Amino acid sequence: MQNLELKIAYTELENESELNTEEKKLLSKARESSDLAYAPYSNFFVGAAILLENGITVCGNNQENAAFPSGLCAERVAIFSAGSTYPNVKIKTIAITCKSESFKVNQPLSPCGACRQAMSEYEIRHKSNIRIILQGETGKIRIMNSIADLLPFMFVAEELKK
Predict the structure, then answer these.
(1) How far is CA 151 from the centre of its chain?
(2) Do the Cβ atoms of 27 and 97 come closer than 8 Å?
(3) Which of 17-21's residues contact partners 24+ apart within 8 Å by CB, and which partners?
(4) Half-sphere exposure of residue 109, counting CA atoms within 13 Å on the CB side?
(5) Which residue, of 56, 63, 77, 135, is most buried by count of CB atoms within 10 Å of its CB?
């Protein structure tokens, strides 16, 4: 038996002032997108904004449904929209933010496992890391330089071919 340890690297910023102009704009678009979320059951509003390599931004927000789990998370709404509209364009960065009607979200929250796996598909497909920027309503910002930092043992299609 061998006990192994896995470490990931990420950057933590105190606030948006430490981001570059492009990243500030993307995080702002994610925040605007969260305002459009359909979340009457959870009252938890998530917005995602994806910056494509061609400079286009694609946004998404969570869409809930009375027939759980028929809704969809903001990250998958955005990434599937980008993939269907711009299938051959690499995803450069995704910014994700959230807020609640019940409490103040003052820390970055991570995407769910299904969203992590969906994002990993695009990172693998385009052979290009996707930068992830996470923030709640306010407070610290967490940045990862690859989906692999969020999902180190991701399921990959190559494993199906062995």
Answers:
(1) 12
(2) yes
(3) 18/141, 19/133, 19/141
(4) 21
(5) 135
The C-alpha atoms of residue 152 and residue 107 are separated, in whole angstroms, by 22
Structure tokens at 36: 């459009």
**Domain regions of the chain by residue span:** 20-151
Q: What are phi and psi of 91, to 5 degrees?
A: -90, 125
Alpha helices in 36-112 (DSSP H): 74-85
Beta bridge partners of 81: none
Domain 20-151 coded CATH 3.40.50.970: no
CB neighbour list of residue 110: distance below 8 Å, 6 or more residues apart: 116, 134, 150
Question: pLDDT, tens digit, for every residue of 69-125?
Answer: 899 999 999 999 999 999 999 999 999 999 999 999 999 999 999 999 999 999 999
Q: Which of the residues are catalytic?
A: 75
The answer to whether residues 48 and 57 touch, using CB atoms and an 8 Å cutoff, is no
